[in-house]
Amino acid sequence: xxxxxxxxxxxxxxxxxxxxxxxxxxxxxxxxxxxxxxxxxxxxxxxxxxxxxxxxxxxxxxxxxxxxxxxxxxxxxxxxxxxxxxxxxxxxxxxxxxxxxxxxxxxxxxxxxxxxxxxxxxxxxxxxxxxxxxxxxxxxxxxxxxxxxxxxxxxxxxxxxxxxxxxxxxxxxxxxxxxxxxxxxxxxxxxxxxxxxxxxxxxxxxxxxxxxxxxxxxxxxxxxxxxxxxxxxxxxxxxxxxxxxxxxxxxxxxxxxxxxxxxxxxxxxxxxxxxx
Length: 276
Fold this sequence. Notes:
The protein has a single domain (about 1-275), classed as 3-Layer(aba) Sandwich (Aminopeptidase), CATH 3.40.630. The protein is about 35% helix and about 20% strand. The protein has 7 helices and 13 strands. The chain has helices at about 5-15, 60-65, 70-75, 120-145, 180-195, 215-225, 250-275, and strands at about 1-5, 20-25, 30, 40, 80-85, 105, 110, 150-155, 170, 205, 230-235, 240, 245. Strand 1 (about 1-5), helix 1 (about 5-15) and strand 2 form a beta-alpha-beta unit. Helix 1 (about 5-15) packs parallel to helix 4 and helix 5 (about 180-195) packs antiparallel against helix 7.
């Protein structure tokens, strides 16, 4: 992996070069080993939290981890195109619009002891902007090359905070064209429900059961690109103990192995349907 400037990353994408890089501001990583009609994203995978924010932050390191989506990048790391956030959503949230990306409160609790300076906020907003410039260049390149592409927008959620039974997998579809893509959504939901997980974990999947797919990442791509389907795919945090901050590597590995075949299979079905 190399460190590259925003301009270099975009140039490489537009030239359809294969590369693996971290952005020079260390806000995200991108890997392209082949240009295929699908990409994977893990925008909330990051846990990095720059040092100047430690003192003003009221939330503990554990509280930040609890609301992040650890291991979501590892679940899709074997795919040809992967883009993932490095920074904690508590610094800036890539799944919110720029004007809302730096939280004042987070999950009902004030985030900062005192307001952050404009310079500190601007630093974070700049990283948010850089990420979306690369996302734009990537999706634009894939649409031009293939005519259609699918983006698997990977997230996780804290299932223990719900007071009812919730699915292992949830697809959020309220901001995509369900008339056009309904069959593809159902096909993906069905595939996820067939996943085999260790430790007796069952794999259930539902649509808009816990989350509806209201994230900015999905909205940004959907609003800017008419021939890209974004599938906001959330796994319940069955792959860790969300209260003890313990990751279960065997579950993460099982998810990765299942998605290794399921994502490309589904992506090619979608592509064959919409490429013309």
